[in-house]
Predict the structure.
Amino acid sequence: MKRKIRIAIPNKGRLKQPSIQVLQRAGVNILEEERAYISKTSDPRFEAIFARAFDIPIYVHYGAVDLGITGHDLILEREADVHELLDLEFGKCQLVVAVPENSKINSINDVPAVARVATEYPNLSRKYFEGLGKQVEILGVRGTSELAPKLGLAQIIVDISSSGETLRKNNLEVIATILDSTCRLACNKIAYRTFENEINEFLGRLRQGGLK
Amino acid sequence: MFTKLHTPKGTRDYLPEEVERYRYIEKELRENFKLWGYQEVRSPTIEFVEALSTGVGSELVDTMFKFQDYDGKILALRAEMTAPVARIVTTRMTSTPEPIRLFYLSNVFRYSQSYVERGREFWQAGVELIGCNTSEADGEILSLLISSLRKVGLKEVRVDVGHASLLKDLLKATGLDEEKKGILQNLLAYRDETRLEKFMDQNNFPSEVREAFLQLSCCRRLDEVSSISLNSSEYEKANDHLRNLLEVEDILADYNIEDFVFFDFSLTRKIEYYTGMVFEASVPNLGLPLGGGGRYDDFIEKFAKLKLPATGFALEIEKCLQALTTQGFQIPEKTKTKILVSSKSRNAAIRAVNVLRDAGFVALLDITKNDEEKIMDYGKLAGMDYVVFVGSSLKKPATIYDVGSNISRNIGIETFLQSIGGQS
């Protein structure tokens, strides 16, 4: 008998509930307490793994899980070579470059020769600024990069923004958009070969009822 | 804390047990490559960066460890072996009759700029079949790949085949600009059919091409591509590629391996030089491919004015080992009996180890001059089967300590040899 298909789901944050709902609408209910890292589901072929959205691309890339729900932005940031079988259409956000409202930097062209950028996305930020020929210093931070300009840690931040509210609250304004992102159903490339029938059947259910 | 006693990131040591397993895989692969008439070559670990970067694409060049020679020339550690083999063939083997069949077992080095930590030194086993562009050559390479992985002991091996030029020529036929071609290629690699369809509708794809993309995405076996019809003359090249895939399928059937080879239109190997069939080998329950390769007909001419079509593959030995481990494969150990020999008479001890080695046993000479008890302790800890204490002459009975049963007995060396199945 084939082993169970493992699907990773964000264990917290804005992607968690919509992910669980999408699975429910596709007929896969999570049966166990969320505290458990590995949960049984109502579909005996699937088991759910709760993990950080940021780590899910890596889990999928290496095949530690077969499927994973996570942001397109995170898949790119973690350089995961995976199939993105379906755009789940929730978790819409943009990866943006932002500066304090009172900053002298008003556009990406104003970014000075020497500048520090605080971000949770060091890889994508480095690629973006290198592409523009800007030599900036990238500071990798975990969460609350909005704080960095206030403390003088960095003049610029690169962060995701969905409604723009957090940025506004922190008196930051967007000067450029690096990419648009939504949540995706990522799939390990070899797992897709092994479980193609099961995964395609699951995809069919997602397309029919799973997406709003 | 930084200490020079660590190895640099992405590199590591291999301890004896692990080297044994590596050597097992290398031996099986080498033997099989040779049975198919492939001959081994070696190239230097360092080469001029120009030679290593010829035709491989900037992405790979970016990953090379580069440094300066004393005379100012830029050198690099090899990042893959196809370029070195192409250089060897065009400069050193010009009078060798084609097709040329070569193989290598080498370490290659890749530097990753990303903070995603990956290995930086890999061991590869690979083959190159140079000077022939027939589908029979493609079939031979796929068949050699499968037979080699099986020889190593892997089960449920499968190979997925795509076609670099089929994809390129169809992309060209779409008339899209480079950016949109990139998006389309990503959607194919994502296997996101919903968005693929949407994208093709938005960009007014000719219905013939639209159908071809959708059908190719669904094809899983090489013979299924026969259902694709591209009639107008602008798709002539694409049709040639489809014919190539069908021919390969026929050849695989002759090898009786057609059930292990699949079609995967989304398969794109990252190295730029591929022009024809590309492929990847994998086993279930290992999330990364074991290796892969493909046809590169325009690559070798970049080294010399020689049009030499070629195809080949490279396997990552570590991945093969991981796959064997996940499949629970026990690597057949050649358990030769290990014997530690000690004597007050050095001359007698040396003669004893020689006799034992001649009889095919692993014989170690005690060089510590320790007392018997310590020597026996060492024998136990070091995994010896026997510790033999010989007298002043081999004619006299020796004390044979059997580590497993913890029993000592006094017998002649000849009798001992016979008892453990050696011929003297």
